[in-house]
Amino acid sequence: MSRLFSPLLRRHRLQRFEIVYWLVAVAVFFIFPRNLALATSILVMALFALSLDLVLGFSGIVSFGHAVFFGVGAYAAGLLALGGYAEPISGAIIAGLVAGFVALLMGPVVIRASGLPQIMVTLAFAVIAYEFANKAVWLTRGDDGLGGIKLMPLLGVFQWTALGQTAYWYALGWLFVLFLLIRTVLSSPFGVALQGCRENIVRMRFIGTPVLGRLMGAYVLSGFVAGIAGAISCQTSKFAGLDTLSIDRSIDALVMLVLGGVGRLYGGLLGAPVYMLVRQIAAEWNPFHWMFVVGGLLVFVVMLARGGILGLLEAIAGRISSKLSGKR
Description:
Number of strands: 0
Strand content: under 5%
Shape: globular
Number of helices: 15
Radius of gyration: 20 Å
Structural class: mainly alpha
Number of domains: 1
Largest sheet: none
CATH architecture: Orthogonal Bundle
CATH topology: ABC transporter involved in vitamin B12 uptake, BtuC
């Protein structure tokens, strides 16, 4: 059995070339010191897209309402800080646990559905969460959102600066730690079972795999990670509003995955900066028609690059290596 699964287990182990991504992320801090707010938002959305990829790309669970967990994490972190609990790291973990608990409640309903009903169920949960936050003014302040959030210095030492230096390192540190966590899960037999459920859930049931338990575990873990992403968003921006629960937030993460490559660990991590930078540049160029540029990019990637940008890069690398081997 171990020999059978060994290629899948090795697929998500660290490779030497991956250090380039993290070195670039570190270099951004020094090259673009005036744009750290945007860079931090990119890291937050990359983490959110990674959490969505865990259920969509690796477990086969279609979720159009994943922003529920992002928003729950954001509001939980904001309420904790406003209530006097201003330690950021433990606050983010608590917010993630709250979001994971919400995923535990939603999971049995979402997982038992499939196809179009599953999409509609996740959309329904998203609408319910948004409307609850909008109407529960006593808790969320409605349209005004949770503002005036103040946090303790990070690790008791690093102050939250106006230019966002501390916020950037904070978001990057969380992204790296949670990326390693998800990678460890996917490179385990549990991760192999998840991919088996994605490929053929009926066959996995026939061989005795506890499909519901595996998918629930992935869904709860995904909600936990998405909740931490929402908490980081709230802590670094000092605000939590209705936009954190909007369907647009879920769609943004889905587009990032499609651009980068669904079912690839670096899909969301690459798709997030591409999408947000293209959107930023297009919006500055034309504030009213920037969606045409984003839509054109998405159509180009879907039509010409199977597997997203990462799939295109792999195809190019494969052709180059085959030509070099042919010359030999």
